[in-house]
Structure formats: structure tokens, C-alpha cells
Amino acid sequence: MESIQALIADDEILVRQSLAQLLNAEPDIEVVGIASDGEQVLHLRRKHLPNAVPMDLKMPQMYGIEATKQIKQEMPSIEVCILAIYDDD
């Protein structure tokens, strides 16, 4: 089985750090980059060529939906998993 190279995209530092720690604890997952906004995730995905991106929806510079569209247009083999946490009803 091929290992997973993950690029984490979330604007909350605690979420990024926690997710990186959880994913790196798995033997077949390597976190290759961490982005804090949509523009940064696009830059880092070209640099690190991940095969998976846990993506926050609401980020500065560019929302996760737009970043996901661009990723899938340029690199359709990358799997994107949308992360969304809201504290309102």
C-alpha cells in the first residue's frame, strides 16, 4: 500500500498542529506541509505534491471550496477531505 502524503489546510493553528500530530502518528501517513490559508495551500501543493489534503472551508485569502476547485482542476488525483467546524446553530 502506498503511503499518504498529506497537506493540511486550516486557518486555526491549534487545529493544524493537532491534526498534524494525529496524522504523523500513523505509520502510513506523512504530513508534507501545513497551510494557513487558501493561497498558501495552492503554493504548497505544487511544491510538495501531496496525494491528500484535509481542507478547512473558511480560510483567509481564499476559501477552501475555491482552493479545492483549483486543486482538482490541476491535479485531479489529489483527494480532498473538507473540514468544517461551526459553533452556531
UniProtKB/TrEMBL annotation:
Residues 5-89 form the Response regulatory domain. This is Transcriptional regulatory protein LiaR. Signal peptide: none annotated. The keyword DNA-binding applies. Keywords: DNA-binding, Phosphoprotein. The modification 4-aspartylphosphate is found at residue 56. InterPro entries: CheY-like_superfamily, NreC/VraR/RcsB-like_REC, Sig_transdc_resp-reg_receiver, WalR-like. One of its GO terms (molecular function) is DNA binding. Gene3D superfamilies: 3.40.50.2300. The lineage of its organism: Bacteria, Candidatus Fervidibacterota, Candidatus Fervidibacter. CDD domains: REC_NarL-like. One of its GO terms (biological process) is phosphorelay signal transduction system. It comes from Candidatus Fervidibacter japonicus.
